[in-house]
């Protein structure tokens, strides 16, 4: 005997079949309503990543797509996913600058060069204009100040642990030493040793 998990009066497999048939019917209706000939390749679990880049013109939309992505792929994707009709597509591949070392190296090797992976961009002409919403002025909901402060601290820590940490100058310590030296020269404060050993070493250095 086979055991099915039921929901109401229909078994689970029947529900899955009904959902699949309804999705196929919706896809066929969308394809038949398209003003152009769509592709026949069915994609059920897409693993592509398409980035919508903010632009200035409301009549154009710019995307960053995979290198293997074609103009027809983007046209079908926009139609099936968002019911967006376009008039044309322009694409270009932006080459990355040559960098030293290999990808992922912490310290780039000398006289070894590589070119990072190129990036592909596509710009489509929209039938109906699209206006981006205004940028939010209040960023309290996203904790922007805390995130920026954390990024600054992380960057400082990475620089202090890097190969050039010995050449770094602590500006705060420099200012404190400058103020202390100025106060000593003006006679506002008197220098005192921290402990007896330091006082002895200072006296010995002065020849007393």
From TrEMBL:
GO terms for biological process: mitochondrial translation. One of its GO terms (molecular function) is structural constituent of ribosome. GO terms for cellular component: mitochondrial large ribosomal subunit. Keywords: Ribonucleoprotein, Ribosomal protein. It comes from the Eukaryota. The keyword Ribosomal protein applies. Belongs to the universal ribosomal protein uL23 family. This is Large ribosomal subunit protein uL23m.
